[in-house]
Amino acid sequence: MSAMSKRVSAAVLAATAVALVGVAAPQAAAAPVPQPQSVTAETKAAAAQAAAAPDTLATLSRFFAREGKVAPDAARPRIEGEAIPVSYLSPDFVAGKAGADVARLEYLASRAVSSDGQQAALWTTRTEAGWQVVNIATGDDEFRYAQLGAAKLPGGTVFREPQIDAWYVAEGARVLPLDEDAERAVGAGGTSLAAYRSRVTRAYGDKLPGSAYAKGGKAGGFDTASPAEGSAGTAVTAGAAGALALGVAGSAALLRLRLRRRTTDAL
Fold first, then answer.
1. Would residue 43 count as lying in a domain?
2. Strand ranges (E), the chain
3. Which residues are registered as beta bridge partners of 19?
4. Which of 85, 67, 89 has the alpha carbon at shortest distance from 138?
């Protein structure tokens, strides 16, 4: 497993969270609010406003200070650039729905940088309360792969297959890998869209929302684990289920810290 495959993230169920606490099981959360099908100037502006809100910046200060790398009052987080759309493998595509795109918009990501150079991605989605930051993840994966995809296949759709933490870019009938995980899945030269659909349908077709697998509480992709070293609150590992049924859990002002990792299990 490469170092880039591990990311520490804090799921922010409300930007006003003031402590690291445990969260309820994902399946107990309210139904997710459908996200826009496309990104507009208005949605980008809403995401930017949520990312730059004082409460969000305060949470970022604590996030960047979680390992003692910088004091909370010295982190001075700032938001750089505009929010970018981030897409994930679409369950409709996996299910073979006619006309379904390979990926669907999951959130807008804003780049946050601390005074000591640490970077994080703020995930912003539309909730019942409006556009809110729902997660903070270390690193710059979202932005780096967006740039790699644009260079490798201009005009293509960059997307993530969260079940194996793989990033791709798709355009027309082609799907090209952007990282080692994707190369292991489809080869260094990529694959056809039809072949990619066949692969993901075999892997995940029986694990879609509404399936017995999902009804068993596994589709959220989270398994409770012992707290990670140096973390506070409850550590949760994101399993192979990833986010075919990704939604925003949003009923209380909670903040959680989790160590995300790949697993070799099926979805």
1. yes
2. 7-12, 78-89, 103-113, 119-127, 130-138, 157-161, 166-171, 174-177, 191-192, 222-224, 236-238, 255-260
3. none
4. 67
Query: What is the token pair recorded at 40?
Result: 């507009």
SS3 percent helix, strand, coil of the chain, rounded to 5, is 25, 30, 45
What pairs with residue 104 in β-bridges?
88
Is residue 156 assigned to a domain? yes
Is 267 among the domain residues? no
The two three-digit tokens of residue 213, written as one number? 């697998």
- CA 177-182-184 angle, to 5 degrees, is 120
Question: How does pLDDT run across 146-205, given as a tens digit for each residue?
Answer: 999 999 999 999 999 999 999 999 999 999 999 999 999 999 999 999 999 999 999 998
* Contacts by 221-230, CB closer than 8 A, 24 or more apart: 221/26, 221/162, 221/163, 222/25, 222/26, 222/258, 225/259, 228/8, 228/257, 228/258, 228/259, 230/66, 230/67
Range of the domain at 168: 3-260
Structure tokens at 210: 């509404």
